[in-house]
Amino acid sequence: RYLPFCKLPGRVMGIRLLRFTSVVIIVLLLVAGALTALLPNIKDDKMPNLRREPKPQSQSASDSFTLIMQTYNRTDLLLKLLNHYQAIPQLHKVIVVWNNIGEKIPEEMWNSLGPHPVPVVFKVQTVNRMRNRLQNFPELETKAVLMMDDDTLISAHDLAFAFSVWQQFPEQIVGFVPRKHISTPSGVYSYGSFELQNPGFGNGDQYSMVLIGAAFFHSGYLEDFQRQPEAVYALIDETQNCDDIAMNFLVAKHTGKPSGVFVKPVDIRNLEKDTNSGYSGMWHRAEHLLQRSYCVNKLVNIYDGMPLKYSNIMISQFGFPNYANHKNKM
Amino acid sequence: RYLPFCKLPGRVMGIRLLRFTSVVIIVLLLVAGALTALLPNIKDDKMPNLRREPKPQSQSASDSFTLIMQTYNRTDLLLKLLNHYQAIPQLHKVIVVWNNIGEKIPEEMWNSLGPHPVPVVFKVQTVNRMRNRLQNFPELETKAVLMMDDDTLISAHDLAFAFSVWQQFPEQIVGFVPRKHISTPSGVYSYGSFELQNPGFGNGDQYSMVLIGAAFFHSGYLEDFQRQPEAVYALIDETQNCDDIAMNFLVAKHTGKPSGVFVKPVDIRNLEKDTNSGYSGMWHRAEHLLQRSYCVNKLVNIYDGMPLKYSNIMISQFGFPNYANHKNKM
Predict the structure, then answer these.
(1) Per the CB < 8 Å rule, is B204 touching A268?
(2) Is A9 within the bounds of a domain?
(3) Is the ipTM of this complex over 0.90?
(4) Residue A36 lies in a domain
(5) Active site includes A244?
């Protein structure tokens, strides 16, 4: 039947209105849904967190460094330190050398607590060896390596400054822990620190090594390390010690200069005491220092000479933390 | 007559004995005389002084430095400082740039108080100019120059250390007084020290100049200085200031690096107050700092750009004076 418009206003209008209203409501819901998706997520820490896709590596390989941290039986410290180190400016990537043989890496937990500022790679090891950290990891893309012990906390300021110093001395180990060897009349060498007699070149003390457990060095040296005499690996494996002394020998031989440049840290802390594992580092072993003297002498045999050279250069950051730390009463 | 031996014992024996005794006595006297000539001369200061001929220069030109000290109206300070500086190890020679126009050099007095450890040359000037000290003196034989103001006393330890640092950075001015320039939004530069705002490259402060009034630098730069645009000499003469800023521009342009390396002095003193002359240095003039900002801007015009670069490297001597000045509570 013909239903003229004027006769069916109520019913026709009703249906059209219904359709119109439905459309409007649906459109509004869609808009609302879109807006919700764009809203910031409010987290417990009250910081606005704009959720975004993890970006590809934005730091260029020449202006950033890779942190290599070996860990054994101190996962609580490792995770505490990773929270700090993952945020250091100019960090490209973290490589965790997992010496906890047979134990699962905390990757699931790590990922569940993401996102993280940089990629962290857990390298599972098959044998618990000190020299595992000195492999030439394929994941390493930067020229610079920062090697840290898993119980050492050093401030971001110190690391940023030391990295800038390394960029001026890229051939050398630039770090925070200086040590030295001394020669004795018998020709036997001894290893130690400030407590040992000065080598006797003028005033003051000298150092001839910078330990790699808190230092920057060129990634090329990891490559070089793979080409050392077998006896070096045997020595490190026998002592589970001295990999750092071996690296200093390698660098000194390569450069003909002092192997390291010492940067005086403003804030460096050893967190050993804070671990729940009850495990304390290798350096507490009674024979630790004697072993290191032993290593120096063995390495001199292996390399047929003493390549280490002395330095007395101590570098600090001008005007930091104290803006006039260089003022003198003139 | 034949005098048998047995018959003349008394007289013959007598003559032979006399001859023999005479010979013995003469020999003894000669020996005694020789011994006397070899004995040390005891002087009033109770130190044995083995008088010897002044030796020719025993320091090689590459392992020693020449002190250049310009002096005006402070001869009492000059002589006090010379007594100290003439004894610095590795010093080859002293060149005193005598800006006391028309006044006799104290050469007679100097010689009468000899011997001196090294030669001291007094270079008489005809005009009292700040830049007189930047001539390429023919007496200069060493690669290294130590330039000191005539009112600055710095310890031998500091100088020995800074010289060893210069040998590691021979292209740069290695010294004890850091300064900086800053850029302002208008493009006009300002000169100053720690009191000026940091240039803003990360934490802490930066320096872009090391003043030559207490520094080591390569003698080649004195040669280079003779080949600068006339406008540079005009500027220094007009202000009687800024020769050191000009040198920093020269070195920065030449190396493309920061012009200086700052070594933190342990003991540096200004002896200005101690002079009898009542003369106090140019830096007390009211316009001194403003002049130096003026010079920075003029030099940027002359050299068509700002070559100065910033550094925040501060070098100290490891383990001196405090044998554990690098210890950290770990």
Answers:
(1) no
(2) no
(3) no
(4) no
(5) yes
